[in-house]
Design goal:
carbohydrate binding; 1 helix; Endo-1,3(4)-beta-glucanase 1 carbohydrate binding domain-containing protein; about 5% helix; mainly beta; Eng1_septum; globular; 3-stranded antiparallel β-sheet; binds 2-acetamido-2-deoxy-beta-D-glucopyranose; signal
Length: about 280
């Protein structure tokens, strides 16, 4: 099965639970047209642009269409240009239809990157060895070179697990840790590096990597087939129950038929101070 086929199936599967009817919403008018404000934004009483994943799109004069400002800028010439790659530390925010996770900041805890009321931010610092713990803070900050903004020797990396697409981060690695591709159990750990996974049985997962637009989408790239969307998957308790304070883990759509998942987009908020991070994410 090619990756294109996998993605098509994923979209179809996810779309099935994704669209639900808008109940009792008032119609608004835009020029001669009527629209639901949760679905469109009216620009200059003239142009309707659709809301996608709860993010409004904008008209680009001259191009005739609407565009997501998290992916493109619209030039005076009416030409859309892809946003530049991020160069500064960033946080991640998730956008989707469900209000429980709309505009939710991604937090690191227990090796997972998750969102929702029950998604904790877990970090530690011990003053042993003269570490000044007072200079570290508590946000989940990512660096564009693949590391987490933690100060522990050997570094921590965010990565996509090539087997199931899970967005995760490593524990503090030994300072002498081998480069990513050399260790078949931690192959993914610099997610900004395109690598192949010769030891992973399913070759379809080869070459995962992530692109980060400056104040724009956090994009998963599979052999040039960019995916601008991710899955937010509800964490269930052992036995299958769901806690009232919910959390969702985030997956790249490498497996199309994930249960209890919904489509989301992830936006990287740039120009975050690296020192807003922690000593060590645990
Ligand atoms: C998203 O959350 C941030 C910080 O909590 C807030 O400043 C911003 O206005 C929110 N954006 C929207 C569109 O709700
Ligand atoms: C970070 O620390 C501040 C101040 O102690 C606290 O208000 C905030 O909730 C913490 N944030 C996280 C994500 O733990
Ligand atoms: C991660 O990979 C990128 C792209 O190959 C590279 O520029 C960056 O230095 C790597 N990060 C680390 C910490 O080695
Ligand atoms: C690969 O990573 C695993 C898990 O962190 C570790 O136990 C193992 O020693 C590493 N192997 C090599 C060859 O570095």
């Amino acid at each position: 099965m090619t990756i294109k086929r996998v993605l098509t199936l994923a979209l179809a599967a996810a779309a099935a639970n994704f669209f639900s009817p808008v109940l009792a919403e008032e119609l608004a008018t835009c020029g001669q047209a009527t629209y639901y404000p949760t679905e469109y934004t009216c620009h200059n009483d003239k142009t309707l642009c659709p809301t996608q994943y709860s993010l409004p799109t904008k008209p680009c004069a001259g191009s005739g269409g609407c565009y997501p400002p998290e992916q493109f800028s619209c030039g005076e010439d009416g030409v859309l240009r892809t946003l530049p790659s991020a160069t500064s530390p960033f946080t991640l925010t998730v956008w989707g239809v469900r209000s429980a996770y709309r505009n939710q900041t991604v937090r690191a805890c227990g090796g997972y990157l998750a969102i929702g009321a029950n998604a904790r931010q877990c970090h530690a610092c011990t003053a042993a060895g003269g570490t000044n713990c007072g200079v570290y803070r508590n946000q989940t900050v990512f660096l564009t070179d693949g590391r987490m903004a933690s100060a522990v020797p050997g570094h921590q990396y965010w990565y996509i697990n090539p087997r199931d697409g899970l967005l995760a981060y490593t524990p503090a690695l030994a300072p002498s840790a081998l480069p990513p591709a050399a260790n078949s159990t931690q192959v993914g750990w610099n997610a900004t590096t395109p690598i192949t996974y010769p030891t992973v049985p399913n070759q379809e997962f080869a070459g995962l990597n992530v692109k980060i637009h400056e104040n724009g989408f956090f994009v998963w790239d599979k052999e040039g087939a960019m995916s601008h969307w991710w899955f937010a998957c509800l964490v269930t308790l052992p036995g299958g129950g769901v806690s009232t304070a919910r959390s969702w883990r985030i997956y790249a759509p490498v497996i199309p038929d994930k249960r209890d998942c919904e489509l989301v987009k992830i936006v990287a908020k740039a120009q975050v101070d690296e020192r807003a991070g922690v000593y060590k994410y645990v």
